[in-house]
Amino acid sequence: NAGVTQTPKFQVLKTGQSMTLQCAQDMNHNSMYWYRQDPGMGLRLIYYSASEGTTDKGEVPNGYNVSRLNKREFSLRLESAAPSQTSVYFCASVRGREQYFGPGTRLTVT
Amino acid sequence: EDQVTQSPEALRLQEGESSSLNCSYTVSGLRGLFWYRQDPGKGPEFLFTLYSAGEEKEKERLKATLTKKESFLHITAPKPEDSATYLCAAPRFGSGNTGKLIFGQGTTLQVKP
Q: For A20-51, how does the pLDDT look when each residue is reduced to its tens digit (9 = 90+)?
């Protein structure tokens, strides 16, 4: 039982490049969330998915897209990376209001 | 505006020196207050949920309490392994049954042997 897994752990991109962050959970939760964590800003919600087939914007959705591929997997895509997207990205699997986080992806955009 | 504020930003304790971390909130119709622990390079780990003023929850050396305006995380006789960043969070007003939370910026605790 791995809980929440994220890949990759680290990534360096150049401005304008695209990439997809992957997240998978094995807890059979309906809801999954994507956050970014920046120094002094705390955790901020990017997008969330309340159930398979649905996605909604969070606080800071600009520059991102998401796909809820199935109940287990929720991916986050950066179509054209910008330095402002340098951050640590966390995926969370949610049961009610309890959230279970993955280990994070540390992304640097140069 | 809904807000969650934690203090202090950083706290250094000697092993065995008890203290408290504060989380104050201005969220209309509070429906839960959550505490998480985050170790360096890892994701937050769920610790406690408190739902009503006066409620207390304990886990090992940690005890979380809730009043109408703030929550405290009391650490009794801490050990070096308690060193971490502690986050508190509250559901956004109007978020219904979703898990949309506002997170505080965290208190980084360092416990020296």
A: 999 999 999 999 999 999 988 889 999 999 99
